[in-house]
Amino acid sequence: MKAGRIQKLKLLLTLDPSDSFSRYALALEYPRMNDPAQAGSLLEELISRDSRYLPAYQQLGYLYQNVGRREEAVSILRRGMQVAAQQGDPHAKSEMEEALVELLG
Predict the structure, then answer these.
(1) CATH for 2-104?
(2) What is the DSSP letter of 92?
(3) 58/78 Cα distance (integer angstroms)
């Protein structure tokens, strides 16, 4: 089933490479398949392509934290908090703040 979802999401990205949601959804499939590196690459690419896509910052922060890349997790969460503040999204900002406090705690 996972492979089927991955193939569908890849097809959607082939049809529309600027589809941020499909790239995000695809990235979320890879940790479930024990491939955090692929997930990280997709999330980094997503942020590069669409720097306003807030969920990517949070998920990349969690991913970096889970693979022991603490400094990078702190950095990406802080960047995400700045983007959330610029967008006027206090909920996303507070979620990333909580993740940051837990990480630094």
Answers:
(1) 1.25.40.10
(2) H
(3) 10
Residue 34: DSSP 8-state: T
Q: Is the pLDDT of residue 2 over 80?
A: no
Question: Which residues are within 8 A (CB) of 92 and not within 5 positions of it... i.e. 6 or more apart?
Answer: 54, 55, 58, 80, 84
Taking CA atoms, 63 is separated from 1, 15, 32, 87, in Å, by: 23, 27, 12, 23
Mean pLDDT, the chain, whole residue set: 95
The model carries a pTM of 0.93
% of the chain with per-residue pLDDT over 70: 98
